[in-house]
Amino acid sequence: MGNIDFSFFNIRLLDVIDIFLVAIIIYYIYNLIRGTIAVNILIGLFIIYLAYLVVKQSQMRLLTEIFGGFISVGSIALIVVFQQEIRRFLIHIGKNISFRRNKKLWSLFLGKKEIEKDNTARLKPIIDACRSMSKSRTGALIVFSKFFDEEYYQNSGEFIDAEISKRLLESIFQKNSPLHDGALVIVDFRIKTASCILPLSDSEDLPLQFGLRHRAGIGVTEMSDAVAVIVSEETGEISYAKQGNVNMNITHDELERLLNEDV
Ligand SMILES: Nc1ncnc2c1ncn2[C@@H]1O[C@H](COP(=O)(O)OP(=O)(O)OP(=O)(O)O)[C@@H](O)[C@H]1O
Predict the structure, then answer these.
(1) Distance, CA 263 to ligand 1 centroid (Å)?
(2) What is the model's pTM?
(3) What is the pLDDT of residues 143-179, one digit of tens each?
(4) Which positions fall inside the DAC domain (predicted)?
(5) Closest CA to 213 of 194, 193, 236, 233
(6) Where do the DSSP E strands lie in 172-226?
(7) Domains within the chain, CATH numbers bracketed
């Protein structure tokens, strides 16, 4: 019997760490693209790669040439196709590390209770406005962003920069208001802009009854670390979107709890 080479079993600690980190990155990427059209694109690319391996192994020269050509420009194609996902990925990394914008890090120093107590009072006019808009079936889309992302918020809509009040929120979303269409953006507990046009989610997993307002609310949370509250004009139901996922028909207490956690 010949000698079998087991040298590849020689795994170092660094290899284990390497595999662990790759697993985390794959999980992160999966979370980012889950439920979006990007999953289909990824499956498509994977199938092409498999086909390339098969035709190469079978020495089918013409097909190998064609698939090989496709794969050699693959990395550039990946950047173009997954532009939004890569952007989202980098934003997530950058913002999670950013000390100034990370409430959890602050809470280590200031104490979690103090921050939450503060927010409960500041959230009250928003919760009250959502309650009354839900009752009167006034459609509303409110985005809470940790910082003012010019790309989404400044190029469309009206710059306001006002203190939050229940009556101001209600009057902005009132049907006759010129600013009622589009999203209202809150940054650091100030109303920054109203009537913003947001990127729409292209997720195929969303409930059929979700129209543009819901898709816009979910879309902005896919692209950034903002969260969005959507009040349905049709049903008065309140939905809460975060990281591309949506909690439908939440109660006012749930809304308060979620905002307290995330804003
Ligand atoms: N890209 C966008 N960004 C922000 N708001 C948008 C965008 N597109 C549409 N909207 C808002 O959504 C409203 C249309 O909502 P639509 O009825 O399609 O949504 P919906 O999800 O079914 O919500 P509802 O339950 O309130 O009807 C528009 O009047 C506008 O205010």
Answers:
(1) 23
(2) 0.67
(3) 998 776 666 666 678 889 999 999 999 999 999 999 9
(4) 83-252
(5) 233
(6) 183-187, 190-196
(7) 7-81 (no CATH), 112-262 (3.40.1700.10)
> Looking at this protein, which amino acid is placed at residue 69?
G
Contact 78, 49 (CB under 8 A): no
**Which residue's alpha carbon is at the smallest distance from atom 21 of ligand 1?**
211
What average pLDDT does range 125-139 have in this prediction?
96
Say if strands 140-145 and 227-231 run parallel, antiparallel, or are unpaired.
antiparallel
Asked if 259 contacts 248 with a C-beta cutoff of 8 angstroms, the reply is no
**Cα of 233 to ligand 1 centre, how many Å?**
9
Q: Is the CB of 244 under 6 A from ligand 1?
A: no
The closest residue, in CA terms, to atom 4 on ligand 1 is: 182
Question: Which strands form 238-242's sheet, in the order they lie side by side?
Answer: 158-163, 190-196, 183-187, 140-145, 227-231, 238-242, 245-247
Residue 229 neighbours by CB distance under 10 Å: 25
Question: With DSSP H G I counted as helix, E B as strand and the rest as coil, what are the percentages for the chain, rounded to 5?
Answer: 55, 15, 30
Range 39-65 average pLDDT: 87
